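Researcher: Checking consistency across runs. Here is EGFL6 protein again:
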Amino acid sequence: AVCGHGCKYGECTGPNKCKCFPGFAGKTCNQDLNECGLKPRPCEHRCMNTHGSYKCYCLNGYMLMPDGTCASSTTCAMANCQYGCEEVKGEVQCLCPSGGLQLGPNRRTCIDIDECSTGKAVCSHNRRCINTFGSYYCKCQLGYELKYISGRYDCVDINECVTDTHRCNLHAECLNTKGSFKCKCKQGYQGSGFDCA
């Protein structure tokens, strides 16, 4: 089976037919499915959509059970946690709904971990890290665009000279470089390439 546009988060099952991995949707499986909007709702109280998945958390005074339901807890009510809590050996601990969040100094509210600056993020060499609340994603470096080539997605250099997105002078030549471009004044002219006289 060949899928001309590719199946980003899925597999090609027939001519231009994609079967998406759980948590993804769309013709080419490139869209994150918002499980929190599904009926019936996957979480009893609150739901947080994540890339390809979701996390459940409870209102204050309740604690998250393994099946995603929320059970009333008198000790949790006293803890005043932002995202619900759990009781471990009689001790109350506040929870954060994502691995990209950590408990703040007050041990009750959750603050974002910037995976891009801490080095926890893993992005391939031609992608840059973009931090989000509770997570991160990898985006093509400036001067590159995401394209589906020979069975996989990759960041490919944009040829600014061909796409006409350069700002070279009318009397200059455009030279494509990896991730960028250069301008060189034509013979008989001199200047920066952006200005030629």
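Researcher: Does this match what you'd expect to see?
Model: One thing to look at in this run: Residues 76 and 82 are 11 Å apart (CA to CA).
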